[in-house]
Amino acid sequence: RLHPGRLAPRRSAAPAPAFEAVCLGLGRLASAQHLESAVITEPRAMFQLDAAGATVSVLLLGVVLPFLQPHIGVPVTVLYGLSLWAGACLLYDLFCLRLVPLTQPRWLSGIVLANALYCILSAGLIVAHIDALTTLGVAYFLLEILVLVAVVVVEIRLVLRLRAVQAAANPTDA
Predict the structure, then answer these.
(1) What is the pLDDT along the chain (174 residues), one digit of tens a residue?
(2) Are 69 and 58 in contact (CB under 8 A)?
(3) Which of 14, 50, 56, 77 is deepest in the core (most CB within 10 A)?
(4) What's phi and psi for 41, nearest 5 deg?
């Protein structure tokens, strides 16, 4: 039966349960707070996230951006150097995922240090090559730094949480 003033049949106001569940799930995934709480409660997920980001950086810096060098402005050798750094981070992530107990904060501290140093190195390269960098190059490196700083903040929170859990499990007589 048609609703007056409409050409289509009137639908119920409530969405289908499956559609509602999908929307709720997508909304939760899109929430940075949900992502952070999921990652913080599972150290393995943090290493997997970091490995995925390192993989993307290796591919962009070592394969894609060298072809776009005239549009980026950074020398290809610098891009390859940054790609090697990201590759080393990827190898470290994979090593930790396969061979170490992830509940020990020292392993995550290593990748926090590597990521923080990478941010500092990238910022230094922006300053060193500011005359050659294009707007696209500056945008790429600033975006990369912003993403990595967010990852480092989450990693630091996880390190602190793991240390607190470790301290509570092993109280010392001081």
Answers:
(1) 444 444 444 444 444 444 444 444 445 544 455 555 555 567 888 999 999 999 999 999 999 999 999 999 999 999 999 999 999 999 999 999 999 988 889 999 999 999 999 999 999 999 999 999 999 999 999 999 999 999 999 999 999 988 988 888 887 744
(2) no
(3) 50
(4) -80, -10
Structure tokens of 90? 């990827």
